[in-house]
Design goal:
The complex is a heterodimer. In chain A, the strands form two sheets. Chain A has a four-stranded antiparallel β-sheet with strand order 3-4-5-6, with no helix packed on it. By secondary structure, chain A is mainly β. Chain A has one domain (3-106): Folate-binding superfamily (Folate-binding fold), CATH 3.30.2270. Chain A has one helix and six strands, in the order βββαβββ. Chain A is 8% helix and 31% strand. Chain B is an alpha+beta fold. Among the domains of chain B are: 12-120, Ubiquitin-like (UB roll) (Roll); 162-290 and 421-494, 3-Layer(bba) Sandwich (FAD/NAD(P)-binding domain), CATH 3.50.50; 295-416, FAD/NAD(P)-binding domain, CATH 3.50.50; 512-575, BFD-like [2Fe-2S]-binding domain (Arc Repressor Mutant, subunit A), CATH 1.10.10; 669-757, Alpha-Beta Plaits, CATH 3.30.70; 899-997, Aminomethyltransferase beta-barrel domains (Elongation Factor Tu (Ef-tu), domain 3, Beta Barrel). In chain B, strands 8, 9, 12, 13, 14, 15 and 29 form a seven-stranded mixed β-sheet that branches. In chain B, strands 42-43-44-45-41-35-46 form a seven-stranded mixed β-sheet. A six-stranded antiparallel β-sheet of chain B has the order 48-49-50-47-52-51. In chain B, helix 5 runs parallel beside helix 6 (220-233), helix 8 (334-344) packs parallel to helix 9 (362-369) and helix 12 (528-536) packs across helix 14. Chain B is elongated, with a radius of gyration of 38 Å. Chain B starts with 11 loop residues before the first strand and ends in a 14-residue tail after the last strand. Classes of the chains: A mainly beta, B alpha+beta. Chains A and B meet through helix 1 of A and helix 20 and helix 24 of B. The complex binds zinc ion.
Chain lengths: 107, 998
């Protein structure tokens, strides 16, 4: 079970959270102006990296807030958590590795 | 107890215990395991093997035991199959039975499998039981399950209690052998919070069977006792005995299963049987030890053939002689120690066959000095004895050929191919394993989580080195936490080194291996020949060899066999072992009960049950309930002698003709409040909300962003900045989550607050031509006349003195109201309405009647008429789309070409030509029933009922291009033949809607 640091409440076990899919996919301001292909891209196309992934989580059984997480999908190490609307921290900085002190190189 | 020594060991001879095995009474002592007590009684034969039903004996003394699986428990509700006799603590009155034998252990009819073994090669199941598929269920599966099975599942519900507990510590030490104890000492002295867990009933690991070694000037047993005393005395240490760390989960989260009462047997106890610990440890020290490897030689599976260290454990820890005359077969030094200790206890050592060409060193010298016949470059060429080994053939190997075998009589054969470090938890933590060519073992390499391995589990075998390694590991864990570590400690240890020799694979056999069977995986009955066959048939990946031969796939997950299987693949493919790779380690380390995982979540506590405040009234009035998500809903209210159909007919009739009352409390409710509430509603729902006046209701449709219907419900505008939103019963949480998602992550500039009010309002639907007459005398401050309160309006006031939001709304097609009152008043108001309605014959109805009435009107139910691929237009709700709105969730998707194709499935009504046939919901719709199967399916029935109002059956269906087919005939094939149906408008009753006004 992951240990996830809610930016509002602090570290809590995974079972307090719900997963919210890939982060930083903004809803287009004017959907009508998009052609079908771009709209389908927004709707359906998601990345599936082996490595660093920015994703949304919601502290559903806590403060109920959405926030963003940078997680290494290979090691499950959580590199950073930050509020919606905040810029993602610069990745590939092993110093940010929050959980594991040892898998920085894997990033 | 013929084989029990008069003194020695850690058993308590003042506490004799009696137990039953296969119906026969035996005795043992407190401190025994079932295995040690059986051996003390000379009983080695304890089971039949999985596939060939070969007689099998106790092979090990711990968690690695592949053979001695037994069922324990004198009563069905406390029966546990497949327990390892080597880990079952003896108690008075214990009842155990062997498994996989019929009619008895010594006479087993399926033993014939053994004679036909050449017809049961690797991959036998895959090759034989393939076709016809229909034979699987009736013939193959029952046959395989009966013939090749493990224990039987108990037939009574588990009578025991299981609990779960969270644990938080700074350092978790897994394993309390010498390395683990040293680590615990170092961490504990550093002042951090330490958990130590060990799977055995006593802590100490190998120290529990140590004879001659001394630590810091004390005997091993004394040092152990003193160390446990020190750890116990520290308030920062928690010692967990009988606790197996079975699984590693991300972020240093470990699953531990503590067996709390199994060893107490029948004693009445208030304790749970097992306690599941879910431990989050800031740092972990793995001190999980090593497992001795068997040697792979012909007929190496007879009872009486045992691991050398196991024999030593039975002797030193339990005071039991595992035999009287032993042959030893080894590839390392430790078996010499076992031979010497057994000899000094009175066991005759017939010979030591050493696969190494030039064994040397102190242990060999000591064995020779003790007069033991030591034979280098020698292997076991075969064994004899049906239910217990009686002879062994020793043969010298030189230049790849086997010399003439020499036969030795024996009742015990000890084997040791060296030690396999237990890297299970390390590997589960996703740490990288590295092959050690010298040790012929995989060792922990790069860590991923915050852990370190110490002692034998990382190939540090000698006692002194292991203690030092453990202590250093404990200090490193304490330092990693940022605190000050305790002082270094230098252990002064006297113990003879055991070297690091070992062997994997099958020892040389002079080319005889193809004719004989040498077991690799004892529990799954896999031989060296099977693995060689798999490689000859082209399997190269160790993961494929594993699945094809089933080696390593038994309940022990190959603890004793994986490295030998890997060695054989390496030998036959002429690949270095490091390139063959290793199969994946998965939790649990040893089988763990479902009870421990379930904990308290069983029976009534398995899932929460949601009940409305009117639930008890419904129960008292005979309601039959159905589950709708977590809610219990009244399904129908049968009167004596009525079945569901009769009850539903009566309820429908009463509601259409006079008045019915229905508990609609389970509807989801969300209060949407704020300056921008209307704008938010505009974006979330297809409808236009800006112009909806306060005091009015509107039916709202919510889409997902992909354009498909997600939910619907009636929404009331209570004031310019406040909406009372209702959702489907099952969709409430989903809808609120989607609203929150958009509000928090896309439109955080909107001034809107969302509150779930599902549990705040009880909702009482009063429906039927007399509904107004029933409510009129009860309401206060609300004019519910037709003029003041038309259809789709809402007023706030009081009913029976209770504040209410009164909706004029109908899901039946009749004049109707929904009375919202604070949840706690639900039953009181319900009873008042029920009393007031008595003169009109007010009739409580359930969800079944609600479904029939709404289907007669063609009102859809999300999740029944929709399935996540349905647009508003598909189900006739195009009118609910605010055309003038620039955007709402799902709008852009509706503009995709596929969403407006004329052959989309559309909602229609179906009337069977024979009015008495009620179609099955889910039945397929076809155009031409004369087509051969599979026919072209053009739709399916979504709802189907007997309509009382129409006195015939009705159905709703989604049919391709359905609206264009209205007036035509289609067919619904059912098992008794095709049913002809007429396609009609999806509304059957009062199409003009006149009844809405009563
Ligand atoms: Zn939070």
């Amino acid at each position: 079970m992951l240990l996830i640091k809610c930016p509002f409440c602090g570290p809590r076990p995974e079972l307090e959270f719900s997963y919210g899919g890939q982060a930083h996919i903004a809803r287009p301001k004017d959907p009508a102006s998009l052609d079908d292909e771009s709209w389908a891209e927004y709707l359906y196309i998601r990345s599936n990296p082996k490595g660093l992934h920015a994703e949304r989580w919601r502290h559903i059984h806590g403060c109920a807030r959405f926030f963003n997480v940078q997680r290494n999908t290979a090691s499950d190490a959580i590199v950073a958590t930050y509020k919606i609307g905040e810029e993602p921290p610069k990745p590939v900085d092993p110093g940010l590795e929050e959980w594991s002190s040892r898998s920085g190189a894997a990033l | 107890m013929r084989y029990r020594l008069p003194a020695g060991g850690r058993i308590d001879r003042s506490k004799p215990l009696s137990f039953h095995f296969d119906g026969k009474k035996y005795s043992g002592f407190a401190g025994d395991t079932l295995a040690s007590a059986l051996i003390a009684n000379g009983a080695h034969l304890v089971g039949r093997s999985f596939k060939y039903h070969r007689p099998r004996g106790i092979m090990s003394a711990g968690a690695d035991e592949p053979n001695a699986l037994v069922g324990v428990g004198s009563e069905e509700a406390r029966y546990t199959p497949n327990l390892r006799a080597t880990q079952i603590e003896l108690y008075n009155g214990l009842v155990a039975e062997s498994q996989n034998r019929w009619p008895s252990l010594s006479l087993d009819f399926s033993g014939a499998n053994d004679l036909f073994s050449r017809f049961l090669p690797a991959g036998f199941y895959y090759k034989t039981f393939m076709w016809p598929a229909s034979a699987w269920k009736k013939l193959y599966e029952p046959m395989i399950r009966r013939a090749a099975g493990l224990g039987r599942a108990p037939e009574a519900a588990d009578a025991d209690r299981y609990t779960q507990v969270y644990g938080h510590c700074d350092v978790l030490v897994v394993g309390a052998g010498p390395a683990g104890l040293a680590a615990a000492l170092a961490a504990a002295r550093s002042g951090v919070k330490v958990f130590v867990c060990d799977e055995q009933d006593q802590m100490g690991g190998s120290l529990l069977s140590e004879r001659e070694a001394t630590i810091d000037g004390q005997g091993a047993a004394d040092w152990l006792a003193q160390t446990i005393r020190e750890l116990k005395s520290r308030t920062n240490v928690v010692l967990l005995r009988r606790t197996t760390a079975f699984g590693w989960y991300p972020h240093n989260f470990l699953g531990l299963c503590e067996r709390v009462t199994d060893h107490l047997g029948l004693a009445i106890t208030k304790q749970p049987r097992e306690r599941m610990w879910q431990v989050r440890a800031r740092e972990v020290v793995l001190a999980t030890g090593a497992i001795e490897r068997p040697l792979v030689f012909p007929d190496n599976d007879r009872p009486g053939i045992m691991m050398a260290e196991a024999a030593r454990t039975y002797l030193n820890r339990y005071g039991v002689l595992p035999g009287s005359r032993a042959v030893v077969f080894t590839a390392c030094d430790s078996a010499y120690r076992a031979a010497l200790e057994l000899k000094s206890a009175g066991v005759e050592i017939a010979a030591i066959a050493d696969v190494r060409s030039a064994p040397n060193g102190r242990w060999m010298e000591r064995a020779r000095a003790a007069g033991i016949d030591v034979r280098p470059s020698t292997v076991i060429a075969g064994t004899y004895g049906r239910l217990r080994i009686s002879h062994a053939d020793l043969a010298r190997i030189s230049g790849g050929t086997m010399g003439h075998p020499e036969t030795f009589a024996c009742d015990l054969l000890l084997m040791s191919a060296g030690f396999t470090p237990s890297v299970h938890l390390f590997s589960q933590s996703r740490g990288k394993l590295v092959y050690d060519e010298d040790l012929k073992a995989y060792l922990p390499g790069t860590s991923v989580e915050r852990e370190r391995s110490v002692g034998a589990c990382r190939g540090v075998f000698d006692l002194g080195a292991s203690l030092a390694d453990g202590f250093a590991g404990g200090l490193s864990a304490a330092k990693a936490l940022g605190g000050t570590a305790a002082a270094e400690h230098k252990f002064s240890v006297f113990a003879q080194s055991l070297g690091r020799d070992g062997f994997i694979g099958a020892p040389p056999s002079g080319g005889k291996s193809r004719r004989t069977r040498a077991w690799v995986d004892f529990q799954n009955d896999v031989t060296a020949k099977d693995i060689e066959l798999a490689t000859r048939e082209g399997f190269r990946s160790i993961e494929h060899v594993k699945r094809y031969t089933t080696t390593g796939m038994a309940t022990d997950q190959g603890k004793t066999s994986n490295m030998n299987a890997l060695g054989i693949v390496s030998q036959t493919l002429a690949l270095p072992a490091s390139q063959v790779g290793l199969t994946t380690f998965r939790p649990p380390y040893t089988p763990t009960t479902f009870g421990a995982f379930a904990g308290q979540s069983r029976g009534e506590l398995f899932d929460p049950v949601r009940k409305t405040s009117i639930h008890e009234w419904a129960r008292e009035n005979g309601a039959v309930f159905e589950d709708v998500s977590l809610w219990k809903r009244a399904h129908y209210f049968p009167r004596p002698g009525e079945d569901m159909h009769a009850a539903v007919r009566r309820e429908c009739k009463a509601t259409r003709e006079s008045v019915g009352i229905f508990d609609a409390t389970t509807l989801g409710k969300i209060e949407v409040v704020g300056k921008d509430a209307a704008e938010f509603m505009n974006r979330m729902y297809t409808n236009a909300w800006t112009k909806l006046e306060p005091g009015r209701l509107r039916y709202g449709v919510m889409l997902r962003e992909d354009g498909f219907v997600m939910d619907d419900g009636v929404v009331g505008r209570m004031s310019p900045d406040r909406f009372h939103v209702t959702t489907t019963t099952g969709g409430a949480a989903r809808v609120l989550a989607l609203m929150e998602d958009y509000l928090q992550t896309e439109w955080s500039d909107l001034d809107v607050w969302l509150t779930s009010t599902t549990e705040q309002w009880a909702v009482i639907a009063v429906q039927g031509p007399n509904a107004r007459k029933v409510l009129e005398p009860l309401v206060h401050g609300i004019d519910i006349s037709q003029q003041a309160m038309p259809h789709m309006s809402v007023q706030e006031g009081h009913i029976c003195g209770v504040p209410t939001r009164l909706f004029r709304v109908s899901f039946t097609g009749e004049l109707g109201f929904e009375v919202n009152v604070p949840m706690g008043y639900g039953r009181g108001v319900w009873e008042a309405i029920y009393a007031a309605g008595r003169e009109f014959g007010i009739t409580p109805y359930g969800t079944e009647t609600m479904h029939v009435l709404r289907a007669e009107k063609g009102y859809i139910i999300v999740g029944q008429e929709t399935d996540g691929t349905v647009t508003p237009d598909d189900v006739g709700l195009a009118w609910a789309i605010g055309k003038a709105k620039k955007d709402f969730v799902g709008k852009r998707s509706l503009a995709r070409p596929a969403m407006s194709r004329s052959d989309r499935k559309q909602l229609v009504g179906l009337l069977t030509v024979d009015p008495n046939i009620v179609l099955e919901e889910g039945a397929q719709v076809v155009a031409d029933p004369s087509e051969p199967v599979p026919m072209t399916m053009i739709g399916h029935v979504t709802s189907s009922y007997w309509s009382v109002a129409l006195d015939r059956s009705i159905a709703l269906a989604l049919v391709q291009g359905g609206r264009a087919r209205i007036g035509s005939r289609l067919s619904v094939p059912i098992p008794s033949g095709p049913v002809t149906v007429e396609v009609v408008q999806p509304i059957f009753y009062d199409p003009e809607g006149k009844r809405l006004d009563g």
